[in-house]
Design a protein that fits this description.
- It is a single chain.
- By secondary structure, the chain is an alpha+beta fold.
- About 30% of the residues lie in helices and about 30% in strands.
- The strands form 2 sheets. Strands 1, 2, 3, 4, 5 and 6 form a 6-stranded antiparallel β-sheet that branches. The protein has a 6-stranded mixed β-sheet with strand order 7-8-9-10-11-12, with helices on one face.
- The mean pLDDT is about 90.
Length: about 240
């Protein structure tokens, strides 16, 4: 009987890759790209288990500004790895979070007559949930503007480091707000209060381009909002 590894490789090459190319992506094997001049819009197939009896995998999606990637990796033409968290992502998620189940989704390929069902279901998930959200996120970036370069975030990130809070990976302007991105968690009270102090500093310059500071996690989820009056709130999007 054909092994799960072989069936998975065949399914990626003969079914998934052609289907994704028909949807406008390029690439192959475990990494695909949606063409865009300003962003690396990536889709990756992440493998959790792979042996002759079972291959278990999921799909990751993410957006990274090409300018941010080039600045962090000068002289390197290679794109980000779709299945690796780099900290430079504008947005990143696993496909299960976009589907009705709202959680982790892993497909399994095992030897047998129905092994193609998993691959076909993966194609359907990308077509109906993954790709539309990737395109929507790309549209969202059209109204953003880089605020501070990485070098200009050194001082505030040093303060965050001393407080044992994850650094700000990037900052940008969108919809009259300064948006800070980092690997933070909504339940981290220390991170929230330290970032409140950082937001107060950003707001003290009275830049007319923004009236609030938004803090988002690596997936782009809005965690906290701070305004000129020191008020804060949390909204999930």
């Amino acid at each position: 009987m054909t092994s799960a590894r072989t069936l998975f490789a065949d399914g990626m090459r003969d079914r998934l890759a052609p289907a994704l190319r028909a949807l406008g992506l390029s690439g192959g094997r475990h990494g695909f790209i949606l063409p865009d001049e300003d962003h690396w819009a990536l889709l990756g197939v992440e493998i959790d288990t792979a042996d002759d009896r079972l291959v278990r995998y999921t799909v990751n999606l993410g957006l990274t500004r090409r300018a941010d990637w080039s600045a962090a990796h000068p002289g390197r033409a290679a794109r980000p790895e779709p299945n690796a968290v780099t900290g430079l992502e504008w947005w990143r998620t696993r496909i299960g979070a976009l589907m009705p189940v709202g959680g982790e989704v892993w497909w399994e390929i095992v030897p047998g007559p129905r092994w193609q069902v998993a691959v076909d279901d993966t194609v359907a998930a990308v077509r109906h949930y993954g790709l539309p959200e990737l395109l929507r996120r790309l549209e969202q970036t059209a109204g953003t503007e880089t605020y501070l370069a990485a070098a200009e975030l050194v001082d505030v990130n040093e303060a965050l480091r001393l407080a044992e809070v994850a650094p700000i990976h990037r900052s940008e302007l969108a919809d009259k707000a300064l948006v800070l991105h980092g690997v933070w968690h909504p339940a981290d009270v220390v991170a929230r209060e330290v970032l409140r102090g950082a937001a107060t500093g950003f707001l003290s310059v009275r830049d007319e381009r923004f009236a609030a500071v938004h803090c988002r996690d690596a997936r782009g989820t809005l965690l906290w909002t701070f305004d000129h009056d020191g008020r804060s709130g949390r909204t999930a999007v």
